[in-house]
Amino acid sequence: MSQKSTIFAAIMSTIIYPSPVFGPVHSRRLGISLGINLMPADGKVCTFNCIYCECGLNEDHRPTLPRPTREQVAERLEAKLQEMAAEGQLPDVLTFAGNGEPTCHPHFAEIIDDTIRLRDQYCPEAKVSVLSNATMIHRQAVHDALMRVDNNILKLDTVDPLYINKVDCPTGAYDVDAVIEGMKAFKGHVIVQTMFMKGEKEGRREGEKESVDNTGEEFVGPWLEAVKEIGPQQVMIYTIDRETPTKGLLKATQEQLDQIRDRVIAAGIPCTASY
């Protein structure tokens, strides 16, 4: 059994992460990452219901357990950092990710403070990263907490509302223009993360197919203009890496990712592409 198999509890092809701490794992974009999951260990809670999510669709993984408390997160994180220090393998990054949107936790800001304190004590060279879909950045406490982390990584797959509703599938009200304004409010202390992919999904009518390809100019051009407005410290673009809960989705090609990356770099913004 692989290391990844022993770390994750897999439901079919879906990854449900342990909570509140998992890993360390090797991240394509972040290095040796110790994960922090603020969602229940037996299901998914998210303000998006992305058709490509490795954790599956919300409706297929309703949790029965509660979220971990602030105290549980700190206790488990400290114990794991002590263990890693004893083994001489400290993480490159402490990453808030897992089974849903981390900023939804009612004590997210306080947990960030605890994590920074423990990072400073046990692995001061490590970065604190948050992977977020940006749906909660309008909350002042969330905004302020994200200003305190090293890597404030916020999702922006497109600026097209129809595509967002078709692919990211917000579970509540979502105004992409308001989200872009919220990203601009970080004054550059933000990393934009974007999923590019191809393929199609089942449409609303039987036998109907809908394209989910956002690699064309009609999507990339407006997205790039929004990125320029946001003025992030970095952009991370990537494509599908694991089996998806929705069938028919395909990876963007490495050539397509490289071309998009080069356009971002030409605009004066550092950008990485993970294929």
Helix content: 25-40%
Q: Low-confidence segments, ≥5 residues, pLDDT <50?
A: 1-12
Beta-strand segment tally = 13
In round numbers, the mean pLDDT is 92
Biggest sheet statistics: 8 strands, mixed
Instruction: Please list the strands of the largest sheet in the order they lie side by side.
Output: 3-4-5-6-7-8-11-13
Q: Radius of gyration in whole Å, from Cα?
A: 18 Å
User: What's the SSE pattern?
Assistant: HEEEEHEHEHEHHEEEHEEHE
Strand content: 15-25%
Structural class: alpha/beta
Distance between the termini: 25 Å
Textual characterization of the structure:
There is one protein chain. This protein is of the alpha/beta class and 275 residues long. It contains eight helices and 13 strands. It has helices at 3-7, 70-87, 108-122, 140-148, 161-168, 176-184, 217-230, 254-266; strands at 9-11, 14-16, 21-27, 31-36, 93-96, 127-132, 151-155, 191-195, 197-202, 209-211, 234-238, 249-251, 271-274. It starts with a helix and ends with a strand. Residues 1-12 have low confidence and may be disordered.
